[in-house]
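Lab channel / #folding
Pinned by the channel admin:
"Please post every new chain as: sequence first, then the structure tokens as a reply. Keep commentary short and put observations after the output so the thread stays searchable."

First post following the new format, from NK:
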Amino acid sequence: MNTKFKKHQAVKILVLPNAEFLEYHDPEDEEKALSGEHPEIKKGMTGRINMILPNGQYHVELHDSKGSIIAYAAFSEDDLESLE
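Reply from TO:
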């Protein structure tokens, strides 16, 4: 399978992730998400490819403005843009 991105490559997300498949890095953030106080996930955030999934999607770790991991989500190739 040919892939556009490689593991650990820096990327920018072009769409919001599907909330059903969004995993917060810190379990406390999941509790905050239920109460509406979660870290904001938005278009244009940066991240790194965590792994390439068998279905051809990419599991991406999303970073806040400080570079800390706040969440993980699955994206297709068309939903990502390379920063390298």
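NK: Helices lie at 27-35.
TO: also worth noting, The chain has a mean pLDDT of 86.
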